[in-house]
Each structure stands twice: as structure tokens, then as C-alpha cells.
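Human: Respectfully, please carefully check these C-alpha cells:
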Amino acid sequence: MRVLRRPGFWAIALAGCFACTIGGPQHTFEGFPAGDPRPVPDAAVADELYPLAAGEGDVGAPDSREAVPALSEASRRGSAQGTGPFEAALAVSAEPAVPDHMDAVGGPTEAEAQAAGQVIRPTVSYYTVRRGETLTEIAQKFHISPLTILASNDLVNANTIQQGQRLRILSQDGAIHEVKSGESLWKIAQTYRANIDEIVLVNDIANPNRIRPSQELVIPGVQAAEIGSMLRSERLVSADGRLLPMFDWPVTGRISSNYGMRWGRMHHGIDIAVNTGTPVKAAARGRVTFSGVNGGYGYLVIIDHGDGVETRYAHNSRLLVKAGEYVNRGQVIAYSGNTGNSTGPHLHFEIRYKGNSVDPRSYLR
């Protein structure tokens, strides 16, 4: 009651009544019935209230006049709750607002798709190396691991890139695998320790049981990049078709007979003198295509390394692998001996490229 006796109270009350009855023009607004006596704020009031409706400081906020629908909603809620539009506007502002720039135009972002469990299909682009660039610098430009570049290109090592060289760049970490004859999708997934279903999805494979030799597949994931970079370093033929000096010695010993003409006929390999029972190792990774007795070769192992390259290991005393098996570089495949046409214990070793023998000493490292 004391408040009612204060002159200041009545002055404020009269000013409020005057503002409600005489202030701004009356409008008919969408959502209000025609002739509705409730006032709708004009643009100036909307300017003041917009931050309450959309969140003060929003980047890319629409023009303040676009806030009027929010005030309309606030007015309707206020009427239903017995409150005014200003109090209702505060309630509206508490609801999460979606700015215009967050509209899902063009589908989800990569991060959103990954969060939703969707598979993003990687793309392949080409990049020309500039003078002085390193593999690490190029990888940083594309936000991928250097291993991904190694796993997608025929690079012997990270130091071999040169100005003007074109590199294949994956849009995300992974590897590019060229299907070899006899390979299955299951075997490829096993090699890269990858999910076969994911390989099918990212490569849009209609029938997983029908992949073609020389077909290139993207194997996604950092682990695939690591494994792929290791496998790429096993490449024995360059992009321009040159046989590379990337073979390991199968045994260590004295060369007892060189490659070339011998006794009036071609000697297609080198003989390395070693004692019977010496472990014979694969000169590179590949698939065993023959393991058994073969005439003058005695106990023979032949390994197919892909790209038209094979190695032969002859005169062994015992074989440890079978045809169809995959072997790694340095894996023991046999024990040396003196079988077949041999004058003493040794290993006969051949490298053949596209059916023709070459001098192994030019390609052993």
C-alpha cells in the first residue's frame, strides 16, 4: 500500500498505459486473426528483441525484421500463459536456434557422416611435385599421412620424389591396391587387415566375387596406409617399366659361376657356393607358383612377384613352401643342397622379367 502512495509509481504506471494504447501503429500479422487488437512490435522493437530470440552475437544472423515471426510466436505463447510477449520471448530464446548457415544443403559434412557411421568414398587426385618439396610437406597440404602417398604411388622410398613428378593423392588415409591374378577380395582385405564390407562400399563393388586383375582398389584407413607403404616398397618394377635393384640375396656365399654363356650354352642365373642345409630366403615378397622336382633344377622353388617378375631357387635339399602360398621378403623357403644337374653343393638363383632371364647381380642389393 505504501507503494501506491508514491508519486513515482503512478508516473511509471501512466507512462506504461500511454505506451500500450497510443504507441506504434497497429498491424495485422500472419498468425494473428484479422482485427486482433494485440499489438505487433515494429521493426525498431524487433531490432532490440532479436538477440533474445536467436542468441546474442550469432554469426551470420538474418536481418532483425526476420525476428518478427519469433515475436509472433512469443505473443501467442504469452496469451496462452497469461504473460506478455517480452516474457514469452525470453522463453523462446532458451530454445536452441539453428542459424541459416547451418542448413544441411548438399548433405552432411565428412565429420557428420563419419559420426553417423556413414562411409565416405575417398577420391583420387593428382599433384605435381614442386622444386624442393618433400613428401612430408605434400602430405601436410592434403592433411594425410606421408604413408598414404607412399601407399598410392610407385616410390621406392620417401627421398625419391623429384620436381615435376606426378603423385596420386587420396582424399583420406589409405592405400591403392592393384589386383593381381588369382587374388580374391577376401585375401586383399586380409593382407591389409581391413574390413571387406568397407572395401566393397568405398569402391562401389557390385559383386565382391568378381574383381578383375589390374583393377585398382582403394583400401581405406591409416593401418592400410602403413601396410600399403610397406608393400609398395616391395615393388620391383618402376612406373615406366624398369626392373629395380630391389632384390635381397637369398643366401650369403661365394659366386662360383656367373650369369651368361657357359660351356657353350646360356647359364640363366648365378651359382652361390654354400653348404648343404643352408637356409634359402625369398629375395622379395610374392606367391609361390612351383615347389617340387624339376629336371636339372632338382628341388626347385619359383616365386611370382607380380609385374612379370619371378625368381627361381634350384638344387635344394628340402623345400618348406607349397605352390599357392604367399611368402615375405627374407622368409626361409628351402634348404640348399646338391640335387639335379649339380657338381657340388650350391644355390642356383635366377631373376626373370617378362619371361627373359637377367643378370641377378645387377638387381641384388
